[in-house]
Amino acid sequence: QVRLVESGGGLVQPGGSLKLSCAASGFTFSSYSSYSVRWDRQAPGKERELVAVISSTGAITNYAASVKGRFTISRDNAKNTAYLQMNSLKPEDTAVYYCNAFGLGNYRGQGTQVIVSS
After folding, report:
1. Cα–Cα–Cα angle for 16, 117, 42, rounded to 5 degrees
2. Which of 110, 81, 79, 95 is nearest to 18 (CA)?
3. Alpha helices in 2-113 (DSSP H)
4. Contact, 20 vs 7, CB < 8 A?
5. What pLDDT sits at residue 105?
6. Are 8 and 99 in contact (CB under 8 A)?
7. Bridge-partner residues for 3, per DSSP?
8. What is the block-wise mean pLDDT of the chain (118 residues), using blocks of 10 residues?
9. Which of 11, 44, 72, 97 has the fewest C-beta atoms under 10 angstroms from its C-beta?
10. pLDDT at 33
């Protein structure tokens, strides 16, 4: 059974940084390295929005305009793990962050809470 587990969320002051991790397991019929990975977020009372996406090899990345230049998505296929480095955090970045692996299947983690507040 495929499982994605996010970690690294927490409370941080505006201007601070956090690094989220998404550890994947259970890929038996297909390789994790064949899946693209996406980070989404959902703030209270708002719709879920795409934050960043990375291709299966890591060669291609894309970002939402609101985070471009501040967030960096990466992955380590040897560790079946994806990351989201978040710098210069703003209160409007407060949300639950979810990672998704998509390709032959579509899998999503349970999310990790990020709160940006002074």
Report:
1. 95
2. 95
3. none
4. yes
5. 87
6. no
7. 25
8. 95 98 85 92 96 96 98 95 98 98 92 97
9. 44
10. 83
